[in-house]
């Protein structure tokens, strides 16, 4: 009975842990899309500044120095856009360069709350048939089997029959 329950736990944990590579892939795709859009905005701003004979920083300084609240706000907004572009680009490069174990250990630190939330909201479960997916599923099975097996064993201890002790004379 313990093996059956432990196997069920193992299969359950295998299904759960095998979802990580799929989530990581969907997250990476969303992150890549955000980086692409921010790159376009950054390049358009830089091109417009260059056409005006300005560097990016000089153009931002003009926005920020403006007495017009709208223009000053636009400068602050573009500064935040450039910072987000740099941060997300670096995160994407680290995720793409990470191995399966590194990605599991590091992804929580990389999660941009907005992108991570949208990924979770639209997540489509799948069991990837890749080496990474199979390894995560196998690790999940082993962890689930061990945990449930130990739990069943501990819970069954009070109900276990004790063998009579025979003494030799």
Characterize the structure shown.
This protein is an all-alpha fold and 169 residues long. The protein folds into 2 domains: 1-18 and 128-155; 30-126, no CATH class. It has helices spanning 2-17, 19-51, 56-65, 69-97, 100-110, 113-121, 131-156. The longest helix has 33 residues, at 19-51.
Question: Which strand-content bin applies to the residues?
Answer: under 5%
Termini distance? 38 Å
Total number of domains: 2
Count of DSSP E strands? 0
SSE class:
mainly alpha
Task: Give me the strand/helix succession.
Answer: HHHHHHH
Morphology call: rod-shaped
How many whole angstroms does the radius of gyration measure? Answer: 27 Å
Average pLDDT:
85
Enumerate how many helices there are, as a single number: 7
Pick out the low-confidence regions: none
Helical percentage: over 70%
The major β-sheet equals: none
Transmembrane segments: 134-159
Organism: Devosia crocina
Keywords: Membrane, Transmembrane, Transmembrane helix
Pfam family, one: DUF2937
